[in-house]
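Section 5: illustrative case.
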């Protein structure tokens, strides 16, 4: 077994629902939490050589795992938490919790990540998704990224070598984020902390945070909001199996207890069709469906 002798936590036949904020997913053949970037890179290379499928997640707040589980190795970055703070800049490993980073920066009076305080992902996942909220997005903080390419090489890329747009980073599907250098601006500590508190209050009021979910399911179409369209089409509260369109926010699908991946996918497809028929707009998913292939990341609409 290629993980023999590696340091760090390894689990076999591990329930994927424990790795996703949606609390959905069958068993993973193997899950590995690499404790260092070297371990992550070494497992990737060994798995490639042995033709074992591998995929990587952060905090699982934007993924839908299959009911039948996943073969091969599922890598989880949450043990990669190295961080160095210096002069309004931070070098941080991919598994660091984004919300914690935002809070810690705010405590120092460093401005720039207030928008991220309520986003429950990892730094790596947030960069890959170009996560954003309240008018801010990850791309605006990035100085450089250290990435692992599919051929096993590791490269430091400067901001101007990367492209970002709405929920998109040009490394998507091609490389993994190992660590990043982010910058901040000097700010007023009390004001930053208050702004973050206000952002959290807005989320508590508008999002179904007590039920398992994965944030916004669909991207906003240009000039409109997916939640507005879905609500206008009467979808709030409708369900398939254990998956239900939130009564609080129509762009959230919540797991009412025993939702299956297939319930969520069926609900997504039915909503998509309905919105297309009624409004002529084809909604694209924001949530990632993790399937079985190598690197294993595909958009739901492609399946
Ligand atoms: C309650 C709630 C609120 C949310 N609010 C927002 C919001 O306001 N704005 C927003 O943008 N998102 C929001 N999200 C979605 C989600 O939190 C973000 O997309 C987050 O950035 C995902 O990070 P993650 O570590 O959980 O990624 P995961 O869900 O683990 O992975 C998501 C994708 O990124 C890839 N990935 C993860 N880590 C890496 C890495 N190191 N290198 C390369 N690829 C990687 C995975 O393969 C997968 O394709 C919300 C989610 C929830 C549950």
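Designed sequence:
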């Amino acid at each position: 077994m290629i993980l023999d002798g590696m340091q760090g936590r390894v689990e076999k036949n591990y329930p994927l629902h424990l790795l996703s904020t949606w609390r959905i997913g069958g068993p993973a053949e193997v899950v590995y939490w690499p404790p260092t970037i070297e371990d992550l890179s070494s497992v990737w290379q060994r798995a490639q050589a042995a033709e074992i499928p591998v995929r990587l997640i952060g905090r699982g707040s934007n993924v839908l795992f299959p009911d039948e589980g996943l073969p091969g190795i599922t890598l989880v970055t949450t043990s990669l938490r190295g961080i160095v703070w210096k002069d309004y800049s931070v070098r941080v490993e991919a598994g660091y919790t984004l919300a914690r980073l935002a809070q810690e920066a705010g405590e120092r009076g460093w401005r720039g990540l207030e928008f991220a305080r309520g986003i429950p992902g990892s730094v790596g996942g947030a960069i890959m998704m170009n996560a954003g909220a309240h008018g801010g997005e990850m791309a605006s903080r990035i100085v450089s990224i250290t990435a692992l390419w599919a051929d096993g090489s590791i490269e430091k890329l400067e901001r101007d070598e990367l492209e970002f747009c709405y929920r998109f980073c040009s490394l998507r599907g091609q490389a993994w984020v190992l660590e990043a250098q982010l910058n901040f601006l000097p700010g007023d500590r009390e004001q930053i902390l208050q702004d973050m508190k206000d952002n959290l209050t807005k989320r508590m009021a508008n999002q179904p945070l007590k039920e398992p979910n994965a944030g916004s399911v669909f991207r906003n179409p240009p000039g409109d909001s997916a939640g507005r369209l879905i609500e206008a089409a009467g979808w709030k509260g409708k369900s398939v199996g254990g998956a239900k369109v939130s009564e609080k926010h129509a762009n959230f699908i919540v797991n009412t207890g025993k939702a299956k991946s297939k319930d969520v996918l069926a609900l997504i497809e039915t909503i998509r069709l309905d919105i297309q028929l009624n409004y002529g707009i084809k909604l694209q998913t924001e949530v990632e469906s993790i399937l079985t292939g190598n690197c294993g990341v595909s958009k739901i609409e492609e399946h």
